[in-house]
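Budget justification note: compute hours in this period were largely spent on complex prediction jobs such as the one shown. Inputs:
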Amino acid sequence: MIEARGVRAIRGGREVLKGVSLEAKAGEALAIIGPTGSGKTTLLRILNLLDPPSGGRVLFDGADVSVGERARFLARRRMAMVFQKPSLFNTTVEKNVSYGLRVRGVSGTEIAGKVAGALREVGLAGYENRRPSSLSGGEAQRVALARALVTEPDLLLLDEATANLDPRTAEAIEDLISRVRDGGITVVMATHDLDQARELADRVAVLMGGEVAGMGTVEEIFDRPGSEEVARFVRRRQRPLHG
Amino acid sequence: MELILTLDPAVVEITVRSLLIAVASTAIATTIAVPAGGLLHFHNFWGKRAIINIIQTLYSLPTVTVGLLVFLLLSRSGPLGGFGLLFTPGGMVVGQTILIVPIMTGLTIAALSGITDQVRDSAISLGASKRQAIFTIMVEARAAMMAAVLLGFGRALSEVGVAMMIGGNIQGYTRVLTTAIALETSRGDIEFSMALGIILVSISLIVNLLVNRVQGRWWT
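Corresponding output:
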């Protein structure tokens, strides 16, 4: 579905990604884990085609979408990304959720039905006329998720989507992500929450210092890490949760 | 107050003319300043910083300087003399437009700069084209852009240099609130000047209240 081949990113004179290669196959959930500053967000933005890579290629369904504005635009219309901060538009929830449909020229009657369905899906039915300023952090993130899902993307990218939420709200969002994954949508999620990665992902990529330090199934990464570096990271992160 | 309450014909006529000229100037300036501000904000090109610096310098351009410049342009021997706009309301609109375009352009840039990159990222990520994303950012900046238009209107309505030098303060034709206040005060008709002054301040107040109301509806 989406593949990074030798992706490099230089930001502010620093090499943030040093030739990252990974792939998320259609219908699978791939978690990208790693310490803060390892390049997770930069990689996700490049996969979402928001920023161009400094080197390497991004392939979407086998086609190189790293170059060519038209190819990038068409590929982007088949994916959606939810950011760490919901950054909703300053208008009603209904207008926020319908945004992706309106820019695609979907008719008004179809929009109403889809928006109502998406809001029901995220547990916010009846919130159509609310404004972002009246929503809690969790509600805003759920609107952001509804806004992404209403476009029925083939690929959903999540950048620390539960990082700023309380555990209960984060759990509700995780349930939603789990349903999305079960619905067959390819999910690529950047997270520093290893339990979340373990629970939601089919495969895990460990990003450290801008490089893929390990890649494998959940069991391989957490139970049989291939390198001491990955083992240390996974153990250190899990200790407070289990100890 | 009596002149206002009894709707003195001379007061009403001057007020209506002032409003029409200021509204026309603001409308024309908006069609120039908003696209120009958008162009400068959304595109990077050589000399962009210098242009923005020049625009910011022009904020404080004295109205008499603009008046002189437009006078030279519109005078019979000037490059636009053939249009016969000197000492006409049309000429005043041209002058006031030139006066307020820089501040409205600068404030449009400031309004657009106030919108975070996250708005652009969200729009693009949700499938918006570049043009649709620009439109979304402009809609997000609507309150600050409305303030830019309001400020332009306020400056056009309250300026005196251009109105005096290009309009000529001709009774029943180019006399507006500010030039009438200047003239009547020098003549010693303080009562008439005060009436016009109160109207000038009241218009500004009403426009401010209207804009605050619109912004309140949009933002909360």
